[in-house]
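Researcher: Next sequence.
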Amino acid sequence: MHKVLVVDDEQVIADTLCMIFTEEGFEAHAVYSSAEALVRARELRPDFIVSDVILPGINGIEAAVEICRFLPDCKVLLISGQAATSDMLEKARSQGHEFEILAKPVEPELLIQRLRSGVKVSRA
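Model: Next structure:
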């Protein structure tokens, strides 16, 4: 069973996505901050991270970059309700990370499709 770590500071969103992913056969866990994501990713060793970009403290892109350092095979899918994420994404790309960002609100079917097909992450 594939493990998914959902990261969103809006607990209702994180918990709802976990419920949907669990119903679709994934082992899903929710956390509500990047700091919590870094700790839980080390413990759970998830196959996938589904994370909001705009989070308190370090943003979701920075957390994803850090997680990929110790889990290089982990696939990352970012979601954001804000258009101001392009600068953050460009910084990650300049470091050799290619993350996909989907705009909120995201249809659960689209997220499930992305997880089932495996999110392509390329690194330099």
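Model: The chain has five helices and five strands. Residues 11-23 form the longest helix (13 residues).
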